[in-house]
Amino acid sequence: MSSELKDMNGKPINKIAMMALLLIGSFVIILMQTSLGTALPSLMTAFKVDSAGVQWLTTIFLMVNGIMVPVSAFLNTRVPTKFLYLSALLIYIVGTLIAVVTPTSAFWLLMVARALQAVAAGIVMPLMQVVALALFSEESRGKALGMVGLVIGMAPALGPTLSGWILDQDHTFLGLTIAGNWRSIFILVLPIAIAVLLISFVYFKNILPTRDVKLNVRSLIESTFGFGLILFGSAMVSDHGWTSFTWVILPMLLGLLVIAEFAWHQSRMAVPFLDISVFKNRQFTITTILVSLAFIAMIGVEMVLPIYMQRVRGLSPLNSGLTLLPGALMMGALSPLAGYLYDKHGARRLVIFGFSLVFIGTVPFYQLTETTPTVFITTLYMLRMAGIALTMMPLTSSAMGVLRQNQVAQGTAVNNTIRQVAASLGTAVLSSIMQSVINDHTPTSSLKIKDPLEYAQQMLNAGLSGFHASFLCAAGFVLVAFILAFFLHKGKVTAAEPEEEKA
């Protein structure tokens, strides 16, 4: 794209500065999605809550984030780009400040802080993709989304490692001592977010066209309750199991009914709140399904593998995070390259090769033992993340490539919504399979008294069986994605050349 890129008021845009601010701000916001994972034991002690209670800090983030993503289509269409991004940053800063000052007697206030952070994340994730596509030409979409992939892939993966490092001990930086406690996780990101906010006042511009679209309250309510109930039900699986009518079955059934009504309503609106007509394009539908499967493969194993390393191998949260860090760096390094290769060759061959790597890197986890070398785990995880990098951004680029420019904001919201719901359901499936197998193989309590050593060994074997089943299920998701990838169109498909016409 030429250096004469202009904003909606005809003023020149510093594309590099705007993209850098977008990526840094989004990175800091998305980082919080996983950063509290290693701090949950510390939070349980500080706030005097049990494991089920403290887990709501993660659940509330995922639920609010998932609810906000479909709303982003309306926001991106109605609200000027600069105001929307600055608002997201400000909401995030307010939420983070609340977390820093929350007294240990007010756990509910920390949940409010997490909800505000999730609102910001739900705004910036789709906005980052839409703005990146607007800043770069159609021929460079892969490169643009490759940089976005660096953030989406690395931020959640670095979260546990960063928080583990913070919690490990006190740290001194520029003469300031940062305490090794949970508050420091929030304190560390505040200066960066504030700096990005202040600089964005100058360099961030209104690059997306807006329309005077009225908010359809009925659609907002249906979207919030429909997706919210499904996300809530899937989040409750780990605690109550799939057979719990009150906590899992009923919320998910109600959610599906509301979503069905929501979809029917959207199909009859002249200006839909969330344009589901994008699914009429077969290429968009296939790529959205594949992105969801890739996200399940990434998030699911990122959840199970640290549990294995900490419970079976006895690694600290920090060392567990460091074991996975090379994989996160691998994905970050390859995402821009994957975008470049997509611009040259399209998605099909890249995605098939990428899912091959993910499958090869997942199957050996089925044979993990209590003595498997960590270097072996790190190598396999790097291979998996290399494959994820070669699938995620080419697929997203391909999905957006078949849409007209005025459909991109809606398509991005739809793509991200399906991905969030799929990741939540996929994670619930993996965790429930793991726990179910562990329960089936857990020895009787009488053995603990009769032969403590044998009981400990059988408990270890039960845990390993659960992890093996979960990894095998993850490999199954990848295998389905690998087969489905062959239905992608060869080469690049654009809105100017609809996939239907090429078939």
UniProtKB/TrEMBL annotation:
Coiled-coil ranges (or none): none
Topology versus the membrane: Multi-pass membrane protein
Compartments (UniProt record): Cell membrane
GO annotations of cellular component type: plasma membrane
Residues covered by the Major facilitator superfamily (MFS) profile domain: 18-493
CDD domains: MFS_LmrB_MDR_like
InterPro entries reported in the protein's UniProt record: EmrB-like (IPR004638), MFS (IPR011701), MFS_dom (IPR020846), MFS_trans_sf (IPR036259)
Single annotated GO MF: transmembrane transporter activity
Transmembrane intervals: 55-76, 83-109, 115-137, 144-165, 185-208, 220-238, 244-264, 284-309, 321-342, 349-368, 374-395, 467-488
Pfam families: MFS_1
Keyword annotations: Cell membrane, Membrane, Transmembrane, Transmembrane helix, Transport
NCBIfam families reported in the protein's UniProt record: efflux_EmrB (TIGR00711)
Protein name: EmrB/QacA subfamily drug resistance transporter
Species: Convivina intestini
